[in-house]
Amino acid sequence: MKKYLIIALFLSAFFSISFAAGIGTSKISFSNTQFNITQGSSVSVNYTVALVSGSKWGTSISLLNQTALLQKGINIVMSNPSGDPTFSGVLTIISAPTTPPGQYILSFQATGDDPSVNNSTIILNVASSTHATSASITSQSQIPNSSVSSSSVTPPVYAANYSVINYILYALILITLIVNIYFVAIMKYFNAKLIFVSTALILLGSLVWLYGDFNGGFYSYVSAGFAAIIIGTLLWLYADYKGGAFKK
After folding, report:
1. How far apart are CA 37 and CA 43, in angstroms?
2. SS (H, E, C) the chain
3. Crossing angle between the packed helical segments 190-215 and 223-242, to the nearest 10 degrees
4. CA nearest 165: which of 218, 223, 214, 226?
5. How many CB atoms lie within 10 A of CB 236?
6. From CA 85, how far away is CA 192, in angstroms rounded?
């Protein structure tokens, strides 16, 4: 049995080192960080997610205050929301005709395996379209097609909403806990209980890992999920050993 445990520990260390080698930090940069637009208009800006330290791995861009901005009618779309740093794309910010005039701060964060240490922000100043519409109507007869009618509405384009994915992960975590608690309670033998505990750890570790990928925070979630998978695997091997699975 000792040699099996040694092999398991060696594999755990190997995967830990391999996994860590693909982790680093990144930074989001924009070609411009402040814009002045009117209600019902849009603006585009180039962005780059550059690797700052470590090795490149799967990384995504997340708009931290997306829900609050959507409630104000401010939508974003990214041409390339994820990849292995360094990668670039175009970010389009769209203001609805009903967006209240004022200043808005868009706060972005790189999430996943190369998270950003600091958030990157864009300042968006939205002005009323009343005066712009009046000027457009006045000049329309002189310069055809030079302005947009006040009746035109830009179709809303929404950025990827990770909140739905997070809710699904919450539900799966809760279901996993309930099912495993039930089976641990009805099992009579210690080895069987231990196998269900190890199964729960592996499943929960995978779900927490996914949550870390979608919601950011490598050190808080992804590493914890990885550790739970390793511990669950070792407990499963120990339960099999106690049950005689390795006896010749």
Report:
1. 7
2. CHHHHHHHHHHHHHHHHHHHHCCEEEEEEECCCEEEEECCCEEEEEEEEEEEEECCCCEEEEECCHHHHHHCCEEEEECCCEECCCEEEEEEEEECCCCCCEEEEEEEEEEECCCECCCEEEEEEEECCHHHHHHHHHHHCCCCCCCCCCCCCCCCCCCCCHHHHHHHHHHHHHHHHHHHHHHHHHCCCHHHHHHHHHHHHHHHHHHHHHHHHHHCCHHHHHHHHHHHHHHHHHHHHHHHHHCCCCCC
3. 160
4. 214
5. 19
6. 44
**Maximal CA-CA distance, the chain:** 94
- Reported as a single tens digit per residue, the pLDDT across 226-237 is 788 889 888 888
pTM of the model: 0.52
Q: Which residues of 52-71 are buried (b: 16+ CB within 10 A; e: fewer)?
A: eebebbebbbbbeebeebbe
State pLDDT tens for residues 151-166.
Answer: 333 334 333 444 566 6
